[in-house]
Amino acid sequence: MRHHIPVSTIMTESVIALTRSDDLERAEKLFNKHRIKHMPVVTGESVIGMLSYTDLMRISLAEISNIDEHSIDSVVYNMFTIEQVMVKDVVTVNSKTSIKEVAKILAEREFHALPIVDDSILVGIVTTTDLLNYFISQF
């Protein structure tokens, strides 16, 4: 296995992203529609945060209620903004960072996704699934 293969070879380039003006209902719809678990939050092309599906589940009361889930989610989602729920101190890497280094960061920091940023512009995202698929292809 080569040690200096850039993450650009396995990253997803067509990134689904949110803006600070989006609401949490839109975020949930995008998570479900695209079957993804992480979305960068951007201003223009710059990353200002990261939202995960788990972040949404943490604020949702639907799992502990017997009432209509959609009604509960709507009420809860309207109580918070994207900025209140997203992670603000986002760790990013550039597209030349090695896959090995990305794997190290994800393992040590217990992240499941990293935005790929070149010259302050979001160019991709890499997830633990991308890494696993890469490692599987090596055998």
TrEMBL record:
<feature type="domain" description="CBS">
    <location>
        <begin position="11"/>
        <end position="69"/>
    </location>
</feature>
<protein>
    <submittedName>
        <fullName>CBS domain-containing protein</fullName>
    </submittedName>
</protein>
<dbReference type="Pfam" id="PF00571">
    <property type="entry name" value="CBS"/>
</dbReference>
<dbReference type="InterPro" id="IPR046342">
    <property type="entry name" value="CBS_dom_sf"/>
</dbReference>
<feature type="domain" description="CBS">
    <location>
        <begin position="86"/>
        <end position="139"/>
    </location>
</feature>
<keyword id="KW-0129">CBS domain</keyword>
<dbReference type="InterPro" id="IPR051257">
    <property type="entry name" value="Diverse_CBS-Domain"/>
</dbReference>
<dbReference type="InterPro" id="IPR000644">
    <property type="entry name" value="CBS_dom"/>
</dbReference>
